[in-house]
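Shall we go through a protein fold together, starting from nothing but its sequence? Label the sequence line and the structure token line clearly, so we can match residues to local backbone shapes. Would you write everything just below, so we can both look at the same thing?
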Amino acid sequence: MPSQSLNKNLKPPLPVPSFFNEQRVGEIWKVPYQERAGQARLWAKEYQLAPATRDEFRVALIAVDIQNTFCLPGFELFVGGRSGMGAVEDNRRLAAFIYRNLGNITQFMVTLDTHQAMQIFHPIMLVDAGGNHPDPLTTIRQEDVESGRWRFNPSLANMLGFSDEYGQQHLLHYTRELQRRHKYDLMIWPYHAMLGGIGHALVASIEEAIFFHSVARYSQPEIQIKGQNPLTEHYSAVGPEVLEGPDGSQIAQKDDKFIRKVLDFDAVIIAGQAKSHCVAWTIADLLEDIRQRDEKLAEKVYLLQDCMSPVVVPGVVDYTDPADEEFARFAQAGMRLVSSTEPMDSWLE
């Protein structure tokens, strides 16, 4: 728990700069870096914002996958939530929260979901008996692989550097492992967050806010690239869903460096998309590690509930209830469910 003496060092909420236009949060536009940099230095002078390295009470904000592909209507995996505009509404609140708490956030840790075409959750990786790929939002279960309904696409074996037989063994092992570990079944997603594509980029309004903080507080954000392994999903910033192949060989590993850095802060705030997937699994992995170290560490994790939404595709899937159940579990473990509209010092009392 943070001490009361440290709590008193938090700065009061700041105004939101006049250049922030919440009506443009759901749009793509170019951040005017040089102009914002000049404004940020003037802002720091006006509000006496010291370099972040001087913070006695150190606060990290983990911004999970706040990318165009998830956050803008019309993009591949827009997270609309039940309201239909979830991610846009979330980012309006998050941008305002960042500006109001510019003097209290020490550093951003930004994750970027990063993919290419040939990955286990994209249509190209699987075929049926007729050579057809599954449609996006098709669920692939263990029994679907065992029955031969879906199999690894043999045309990709040489490109990926292994045999067709290994690819099929891995697909069966992977779907079994997800069930054994009580993870979501393998979902075939639309091609999304493609490396180098516009969907991969941060939402402009959030990029602008993070850049403004970086210049005002002399704080370099840490960028965490995740999701490039072709053989596993990678929802969590901490590590992929499956770490071993069918032969027991290691195909991926958890990022212990990320965990150590996160837990070195006095408070950790988490926001982003989607609440039901990448945010939830990041928190779950973090909680697992916390329990191995010291369960009291969970009390310094703050979940910004109104700055994240679950995956909802009307008439197809709705992960709202599973997400809420997970967050209730996080709260029971000692993590704090908070709102962006509440002053930070009220969380820490």
